[in-house]
C-alpha cells in the first residue's frame, strides 16, 4: 500500500515512474499547497492552475526526487517559483494592455514602445508559423480562441495530457525562437499569445 511507505520510499517509486505513488503524493499535499497559493493569488482558478503546473513540473523532473531529503520544502520552493512566474506574466500582460490602449494624452509617449512591440509581435508570428500543424493548431486554439485544455482535447479527439504536452512544446519553441532573435521585449510578444497560460 502506497500510504504505508516512508517519504523516501514514496519518492523513490515516483522517480522510477510509479503513477500510483505520484497520485498518493499529490493527494497528501494538494490541499495544503492550494491554500498556500490561494493566500497570494486570491483566485481559486489561479491557485488551481498553479497547483497543476507545480505537480506537472514535479512529474516531469521526477528523476530528481531521489535526491530530495525532504519533499515539503522542495514542493514549496517549486510553488513559490511558479507563483513568481505568474506574477511576472501578469505584470507584463498589464504593460501590454496599457500599450495597446487607444491614444490618450497619457499614452502619446508610448509610440516607440508600440513600434518595438509590433516588431516582436511579427517575430512571434513567424515562430508560430514554424510549428508543426497539430501543435500550431493547439497553440492557436488556446491563445487566440481561449479554449480550455479540455475543450481543445474534445475538439481534436485527443487526451488532455497530449494537448498539454503539445502546448508546452509549442510555448518552449516560441520562447526559444524569440530568444534566438534577440527579442529584447520577447516577454511582451509571448504574452500576447500566452495570456491565459
Summarize, please:
It contains nine helices and no strands. The protein has 197 residues and is mainly alpha-helical. The two termini are 36 Å apart.
Notes on the protein architecture:
- With 197 residues, the chain is mainly α.
- It contains nine helices and no strands.
- Mean pLDDT is 79; it is low at 104-109 and 183-189.
User: Would you count the extended β strands for me?
Assistant: 0
Structural class: mainly alpha
N- to C-terminal distance: 36 Å
Summarize the biggest pleated sheet. none
**Total count of domains:** 2
Overall shape: it is globular
Family: Belongs to the sigma-70 factor family. ECF subfamily.
GO biological process, one term: DNA-templated transcription initiation
InterPro entries: RNA_pol_sigma-70-like, RNA_pol_sigma-70_dom, RNA_pol_sigma70_bacteroid, RNA_pol_sigma70_r2, RNA_pol_sigma70_r4_t2, RNA_pol_sigma_r2, RNA_pol_sigma_r3/r4-like, WH-like_DNA-bd_sf
GO molecular function: DNA binding; sigma factor activity
Helix and strand arrangement:
Elements: H1 7-15, H2 19-41, H3 44-60, H4 71-100, H5 111-129, H6 133-143, H7 149-156, H8 160-180, H9 186-193
Helix pairs in contact: 1-2, 2-3, 2-4, 3-4, 4-9, 5-8, 5-9, 6-8, 7-8
Amino acid at each position: 500500500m502506497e500510504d504505508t511507505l516512508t517519504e523516501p520510499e514514496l519518492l523513490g517509486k515516483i522517480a522510477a515512474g510509479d503513477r500510483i505513488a505520484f497520485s498518493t503524493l499529490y493527494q497528501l499535499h494538494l490541499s495544503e499547497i492550494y491554500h498556500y497559493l490561494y493566500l497570494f493569488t486570491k483566485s481559486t482558478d489561479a491557485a488551481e492552475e498553479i497547483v497543476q503546473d507545480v505537480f506537472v513540473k514535479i512529474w516531469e523532473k521526477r528523476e530528481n526526487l531521489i535526491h530530495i531529503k525532504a519533499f515539503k520544502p522542495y514542493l514549496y520552493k517549486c510553488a513559490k517559483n511558479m507563483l513568481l512566474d505568474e506574477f511576472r506574466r501578469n505584470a507584463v500582460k498589464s504593460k501590454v494592455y496599457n500599450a495597446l490602449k487607444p491614444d490618450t494624452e497619457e499614452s502619446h509617449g508610448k509610440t516607440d514602445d508600440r513600434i518595438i512591440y509590433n516588431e516582436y509581435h511579427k517575430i512571434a508570428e513567424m515562430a508560430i508559423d514554424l510549428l508543426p500543424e497539430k501543435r500550431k493548431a493547439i497553440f492557436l486554439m488556446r491563445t487566440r480562441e481561449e479554449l480550455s485544455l479540455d475543450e481543445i482535447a474534445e475538439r481534436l479527439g485527443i487526451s488532455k495530457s497530449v494537448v498539454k504536452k503539445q502546448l508546452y512544446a509549442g510555448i518552449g519553441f516560441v520562447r526559444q525562437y524569440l530568444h534566438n532573435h534577440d527579442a529584447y521585449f520577447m516577454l511582451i510578444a509571448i504574452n500576447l499569445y500566452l495570456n491565459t497560460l
